[in-house]
Amino acid sequence: MISLYIITFYSLIKLFISMLNKYHSKVTTKGQITIPTTVRQNLNIPSGSRVELIQQDNYVIVVPINNSISKLKKSLPKPIKTLSCEEINNIISNRGIQ
Q1: Is 31 or 13 the better-scoring residue by pLDDT?
Q2: CA–CA distance, 31 with 6 (Å, rounded to integer)
Q3: What are the structural domains, with CATH classification, of the chain?
Q4: Which of 17, 24, 41, 66 is the most exposed place for a label (fewest CB within 10 A)?
């Protein structure tokens, strides 16, 4: 015998939300919130970092802005060949000619 379960939209949303890592924070009188340590560590948000707040309906999505030049430098592979400024300028000026 096959059992059939009817799941309402509300109960499905509650199930989905219960599967998320939820954290609570209090808004100060200045409108500031504290991002819990676990979240900051998981998302690599050190002190002084900037975050982007995106409002979606009745929710706010917090996205870390990790734009440190040193972090970007470490994430790129070493170039096979280095170019001089003159070579780079020649490539740029000849870009339209081909």
Answers
A1: 31
A2: 42
A3: 23-93 (2.10.260.10)
A4: 24
State yes or no: pLDDT of 53 exceeds 80.
yes
Find out whether 39 and 22 touch, Cβ atoms under 8 Å.
Answer: no
| Predicted confidence (pLDDT) at residue 4 exceeds the cutoff of 60 | no
Chain position carrying tokens 């949303």: 13
- Tell me the pLDDT band of 7, cut-offs 50, 70 and 90: low
Contact between residue 50 and residue 62 where contact means Cβ atoms under 8 Å apart: no
Taking the CB of residue 33, how many other CB atoms lie within 10 A of it? 13
Q: How far apart are CA 4 and CA 63, in angstroms?
A: 40
Q: Which residues contact 61 (CB under 8 A, 6 or more apart)?
A: 53, 54, 55
In sequence order, what DSSP letters do the residues of the chain get, joined into one string?
Answer: --------HHHHHHHHHHHS--------TTS-----HHHHHHTT--TT-EEEEEEETTEEEEEEE---HHHHHHHSPPPSS---HHHHHHHHHTTT--
